[in-house]
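User: I'll paste a sequence; please echo it back and then give the predicted structure.

Assistant: Echoing your sequence first, then the prediction.
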Amino acid sequence: MMSARMLLQRGLRSNKDSKELWRTYLKMELKYLSILRSEVESGIDLGLAPALKDKSEPLLDADSLPLEIEDDKNKESDISRKIRHQERIAEQLDTPFLQGSVPKVIFAHAILEFPKDVKFRVGLANSFERYRFMDSFVDEIYSQLLADHERVAEAVTAVCLRPWKRCSKKVEKDKNVAEAEAEAGAEVGKKRKRQEEELHANTLFEAALSTIDLFEQHVKTLPTPEMWDNYILFLWQVQSLESFSQRAAVLEQKLEDVFSRAEKENGLTENSFKKWLKFLAIQKREEESLALAEKGHQRFPQSRKLLVQWLDLLADQFLVESLISCDKPLARYEAVLKEVSRLLNKDVDYPQDNLLIVWQRYLAFCFSLPQLTFQQIFLLLKRLADDIRLKNRGVVLRQQLKPVMLRFGLDQARLFYNTVLDKPHLLEAFLKDCLALEDIVPKPDVERIRRLFVIGTTNFGRTSTDIWLKYVRFEQSLNNIKRANELFSQAKLTLANPVAFNFLASQTNNLP
């Protein structure tokens, strides 16, 4: 032990900023202290108090006293010896060393090195909590933590959660004992396990109520979003526990009350909004979910997840409404587009992809409505193609080519892709989709296909070997060798990487 202690002390002298070394040193001293206390409790004299008259005498308990005593003198002697053992043990356990003076000093020095690190201090407190003889010192740790960081949500939350965590650890330990007895097959053990489970549920529920009381007390003095979020997270976890199934209604009501109060005080974080939406979804409260999702997007306009949840809820509602009339859903989608577009214009940091997500959902909904004509959908597609703010709009436009072809036919698909091809931010993948579309036509339109290749080589000719390769092979398929050789020369001049041109030549086997 001395060698290990010296080694860790030496390490800390040169590495005071190592949290791991402080944790290791503290855990080692606590473990060593626990072993020494166990030895003292078993009757071993460590020489920390006046010596016993008979060190070899083992500690006696009431059951070990003789049933028959020949005379009062021997009886008095046995009892006196037992009392002296107990007093001796108490004296040793009450010495500063066995009361944890060394771990306490280590803790004090560690905190001096990291005075503002709440998580580190709580972690050290957890090390102490493993040993019941340090309970009073753990109380001091948390009292001082609250005094030092009364305006820090992380510290206040740690104080609030202490009753719950302490009780949870004890219950888990008791459960393991009960399960071990039940597995032994004894009926008594199985009966005890059922009784223990009921007792544990009651004990845990009382601890949960104590934690809730602490949160209620501190959220009044520190009503920050982080504090509300931690409170909601605790309630969210406990209300879903199987052991609280009979008390779920009470906890659910409390959770909903906290959601509402936090929202009124602008204390809901993005994560809390998501939990509230999930809470309402589980209870199948669609109208409230939709209103909350819209409110969540307004509160956190840059949140993609909240926007998607809002749109998903809108889509579910619109599918039902569209069976009667599609006018209201379409008008609502237009309103959403207008609102998100306004946010994009207002805030330079607003993510463009949010507006693209709305377009994506809007167009998917439109394609699901059989009553909409191509002209109506085409006007929407043209609006998207013309919105030069959205640099990634080509991704959404590309997704619409196949639905247009399948629903309205080749001519309408050509009209759509012609509208897109002359816009900025054209995707190479979209152009290839257009070529693939023309490739399946029974009578290919040669001039149309050449025009597509010209657009491709103009926009992507410096980097795309694939476009050149397809173009050359197309001309070769028409036996237009002269044009194919001209394309080789053009590719050699255009491709930025000579290796790419060599690859093109090797694939066509037709160098000029």
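Residues 187-221 form the longest helix (35 residues). Confidence is low (pLDDT under 50) at residues 50-73.
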